[in-house]
Amino acid sequence: MNRENKKKSFEKGYYKTHACNETFTCKLCGRIVTPEGAGTNHRNHCPNCLSSLHVDDEPGDRLADCGGIMEPVAIWVKKNGEWAVIHRCRICGKISSNRVAADDNPIKLMSIAMKPLTSPPFPNRTN
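The chain above was modelled as a monomer; its predicted structure follows.
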């Protein structure tokens, strides 16, 4: 293990203050994800399927023991108009929010945003 990787492993909050520019393979769809094109220094989800991994208890701490797949379940709009994806862990149920990246799949984002309208919690009656 080189010095930089050792520092990442043991320094609390390392990912909060340092860019996360590692390439990884999405555990859900298998796509190789690179940080280029995200529009941010902290790539934390797959731009194809929008899934993530449960690795943080608090953003950037890498202290979660769960390791489950964080599936995208909703979209919300921040005060400044920026979209964010709501993720829920398939194993423990933890919910978190991640801002949308510049290269995220727009069709997937829209399908998640439209889900409540296509599946209302009441019967859809047309006369």
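The mean pLDDT is 82.
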